[in-house]
Amino acid sequence: MLRLAAGYVPSQAVAEEVVQDTWLAVLRGVSRFEGRSSVRTWLFRILVNRARTAGERERRAMAVPDPAAAVDPARFDPSGSWSLPPEHWVDLVDDRLIAQQMAGRVRSAIMDLPAQQREVVTLRDVEGLTSGEVCDVLDLTEANQRVLLHRGRSRLRQVLESEFGRP
Amino acid sequence: MPRLRLPSLPADLACQKLVELVTDYLEGALSRRDRKRFERHLAGCPHCPEYLAQMRATIDLTGRITPDDLTPQMRQDFIELFRRWQADDE
User: Fold this and answer.
1) Cα dihedral sign for B63, B66, B70, B76?
2) Do B62 and A142 touch (CB under 8 A)?
3) Residues 128-157 (A) with a CB less than 8 A from some CB of B
4) How far is A80 from chain B (nearest CA, A)?
5) Which chain B positions have a beta carbon within 8 Å of A80's beta carbon?
6) Contact of B41 with B13, CB cutoff 8 Å
7) Nearest-CA distance A146 → chain B (Å)
8) Element at A51 (helix H, strand E)
9) Do B61 and A160 touch (CB under 8 A)?
10) Which member of A33, A79, A106 has the closest CB to residue B61?
């Protein structure tokens, strides 16, 4: 939750406030909760709303622009086949220390994603919500959720690739 | 008698197109026909399986980011809350 909140606001302290605030709202609201969605979905929904409000109050610098392509078009020939193909580094991730280090790199890369991609990737791939739950929390259609997930994951792959040595 | 011709799909998917379909593939959102095309391309391409493996590794690494955000007290409060909510619901 803290990580999700931290994506919207400029400092850890503000993020902590947002999480605290969310818990208070949860405790106050529990009697009104109708059980239409899972508690988890409901909780994240409150958190996202609160963090968005706090984030607007304390606008942080905009992150990188949204790259439209999953892979730089310059890496394909005119027929659309790889001219600069992906290299083999996935085995390196089997090493526990490397994985730990790279997970840290992914964590900061998530913070640099455009807001909606960051939300979807955090809820799906970090927190482990299902696509249905994410659509509920963020009011997205399944198709939009997939587009955001795709862009976010593709960007994270690019970051890892650059860490492992390809452009 | 003239025969009806179904629109034919391109014989193969370009690599550049495949990389944009990876998430739909992993999410099980491709139609049966597109899924077959996708898998046919993978079977014959020297590079795209590597790309797919990289996407899977990326998802795996993202999932390893440790959930360090709830203090034990918060976790306890939440479990308590959840139990009460379940009890109320019955």
Assistant:
1) positive
2) no
3) 128, 131, 142, 146, 149-150, 153-154, 156-157
4) 5
5) 14-17
6) yes
7) 7
8) helix A39-57
9) yes
10) A106
Is the separation of the CB atoms in A73 and B16 below 8 Å? yes
DSSP labels, A98-136 = HHHHHHHHHHHHHHTS-HHHHHHHIIIIIS---HHHHHH
- How far apart are the CA of B4 and the nearest CA of chain A, in angstroms? 30
Reported residue count of chain B is 90
User: Which residue matches tokens 């960051």?
Assistant: A118
Which is it for the CA torsion B14, A91, A108, A143, positive or negative? positive
Beta bridge partners of A76: A82
Residue A70 carries which side chain, given as an amino acid letter?
Answer: A
Q: Which residue has the tokens 């034919």?
A: B8
- Sign of torsion, CA B40 B45 B47 B50? positive
B90 touching chain A per CB within 8 A = no
**B27: contact with A, CB 8 A cutoff:** yes
Compare CB distances from A90 to B17, B29, B54 and report the shortest one's residue. Answer: B54
Q: What is the pLDDT along chain A (167 residues), one digit of tens a residue?
A: 777 777 777 777 777 777 777 777 777 676 566 555 677 777 788 788 777 777 666 554 444 444 579 999 999 999 999 999 999 999 998 898 898 889 889 988 998 899 899 989 988 998 888 999 899 888 899 999 999 999 999 999 999 999 987 54
Contact B70, A1 (CB under 8 A): yes
Rg (CA), chain B: 23
> Under a CB-based contact definition with an 8 Å cutoff, are residues B15 and A76 in contact?
yes
Nearest one of A113, A100, A114 to A159, comparing CA atoms: A113
